[in-house]
Amino acid sequence: MDQAHQRAIAVIAHIDHGKSTLSDRLLQLTGTVSDRDMREQFLDRMDLERERGITIKAAAVRMAYRAADGDTYQINLIDTPGHVDFNYEVSRSLAACDGVLLLVDAAQGIEAQTLTNLYLALDAGLEIIPVLNKIDLPAAQPDKYADEIASLLGCARDDIYRISAKTGEGVPTLLEAIVEKIPPPSGEVNVPLRALVFDSVYDAYRGVIAYVRVVDGALSAREPIRFMATGFEGEADEIGIMAPEARPVKRLETGEVGYVIAGVKEVSLAKVGDTVTHAGRDGASEALHGYREPKPMVFAGIYPINGDDFPLLRDALDKLKLNDAALVYEPESSGALGFGFRCGFLGLLHMEIVRERLEREFDLELIATAPSVGYELEMTDGVKKLIRNPTDMPDRSMINDISEPYVSVMIVTPTEYVGTIMGLCQERRGELKEMHYLSPERVELRYHVPLGEIIFDFFDQLKSRTKGYASLDYEPIGMFSSELVRVDVLLNGQPVDAFSTIVHRDKSYDYGKKMTDRLRKLIPRQMFDVPIQAAIGSRIIARETVRAKRKDVTAKCYGGDITRKRKLIEKQKEGKKRMKQIGTVEVPQTAFIEALKIDADVKEPG
Ligand SMILES: Nc1nc2c(ncn2[C@@H]2O[C@H](COP(=O)(O)OP(=O)(O)OP(=O)(O)O)[C@@H](O)[C@H]2O)c(=O)[nH]1
Ligand SMILES: [Mg+2]
Which of 300, 384, 502, 530 could form a disulfide with 371 if both were Cys (CB 3.0 to 4.6 A apart)? Predict the structure, then answer.
């Protein structure tokens, strides 16, 4: 279709402000999905997305819309996730658009991700259509929040659209506004092909499906193509559009959004951010600007509870990785947990989702160590080292300096909680950078905080101390030096690797006390006293003791029935298989699992 009749937009908002629901209404109004086939959050296709009611992956779809001027327009829409872990999905979606719908919940107003996403869109130079959603809610305060948005964007109160994505009220007007306000694509038609890969997905039958926006030139089916960054060459076996299911087309014109299947066997050969051009002399010489690749920020060891499942876990991770460029992993072993993998994630929700997918889609039972961040060490001999597992940290005497990742945290909160939040940030070694009133009742706070402090129940604390009213977003700003130490937990003098952690010196004592106390309650009594200690190097900072007790499971069988006795002994043997030997102490694996569960209660920021 000619460029003047094309529009490409993304829907961006804070988590749960209604992006996917608005996409539903647009799909229906344009007849892309019939009323009969419609289901809530149509574009959330993954089981996990549907169950949790959140979007994890951005989804693109093409619609045809007959506007008031009588012309038919092609609208390419991308529904994005709102959760902070998946922010990179938003940034890459924006690279495939000419404008955005910025959605704000009319009962909640501007939240942290509203601002983050707005700044991303402004940076990308996109046209922004501000929209207040959920005006049907009794608690909606559209006038109040319209003023907030207007002062933020520097527009008039009346420039803000008011809709209910649920009832559909105001959505037809908004659709008209998309055609009127969003500029058509501005690429050049008669130049070599340049298409930006904004998503790539592995399909077991078809290989890699690369989702592209044709920026310049055009692409026809069966043409030879080249991925400029990786140099991979192949034939465009199939090109097509999502409408909303995959539908092959003969040609993708300048400005259009669609997919390409070109016999690529690995996602790493058709990377997100790469440029597709024609192979050979017709190809473009300069690639498009890519964008930042997702970088894992949070690390944890993942182990199969049944040691025999290790090969299965490896296969499962290999398969997940095909579709999740952000996931990284390498094998590791632990005295307490056996063989497993150290995995890197975008954040806690990403970690939770990967784990859940592994357990569910691959039928594995898993245990994860407490999440930690990556550290950069400068050794006394000047060599730099990156570590992702606390047990890899060498003796402090060999280290000059330790750096940890810091993030710039944005918190949006009603003014009455500012004091509480400042207290929390201070406890977490935060440094106030900026404070900015969005309106008389709402403040935006900016802090620099170590990421290690954020992944440790910061979000839960923030929510509980502000009755759920504050919202949080953060982005990495680099590595900075800190007074960090490694705390080990010793059982009868032997370190248990799964519990080693790196913390700030001021917090080492608390961690030591907490872990020794927890383990004392979980470790069954042995034939002898078992000391549980926490130590920094050779210095003991906390100690508990599990008192000795003799345990004899056959004692209660009064000597009588021998078969019963034998059964019990067999049973005990069975249980022993699940025991881990730490020095001379036998610990049931369940004790480790319980002890590691402390921080398992991960909730989503939003
Ligand atoms: N009352 C009312 N509820 C709405 C409206 N729009 C969305 N909702 C509800 O708000 C919740 C979140 O909607 P979603 O469309 O999943 O929100 P989202 O922005 O896509 O969420 P993420 O993708 O997870 O960031 C759902 O329970 C919707 O039914 C609306 O206009 N009115
Ligand atoms: Mg959604």
Answer: 300
Q: In 428-561, where does DSSP find H-type helix? A: 451-454, 458-465, 505-522
Domains of the chain: 3-181 (3.40.50.300), 194-282 (2.40.30.10), 298-371 (3.30.70.870), 376-482 (3.30.70.240), 485-595 (3.30.70.2570)
CB distance 166 to ligand 1 below 6 Å: yes
Name the closest ligand to CA 14: 1
- Give me 1's structure tokens: 């279709």
Q: What percent of the chain has pLDDT over 70?
A: 92
- The pTM (predicted TM-score) of the whole model is 0.82
pLDDT in tens, 40-88: 999 998 888 888 888 888 899 999 999 999 999 999 999 999 888 888 8
Which tens digit of pLDDT belongs to each residue from 171-196?
Answer: 999 999 999 999 999 999 999 999 99
Burial class (CB in 10 A: 0-12, 13-18, 19+), 327: buried
Q: CA dist 107 to 189, 221, 470, Å?
A: 45, 48, 14
- Rounded Cα distance between 220 and 279, Å, is 13
Check pocket membership of 20 for ligand 1, CB cut-off 6 A: yes
Ligand 1 neighbour 26 (Cβ under 6 A): no
DSSP string, 556-589: GGTT--HHHHHHHHHHHHHHHHTEEEETTEEEEH
- Name the residue with tokens 């440094």: 431
Give me the sign of the Cα torsion angle 537, 540, 541, 544: positive
| C-beta neighbour count of 18 within 10 angstroms | 25
From the alpha carbon of 13, which atom of ligand 1 is closest? 19
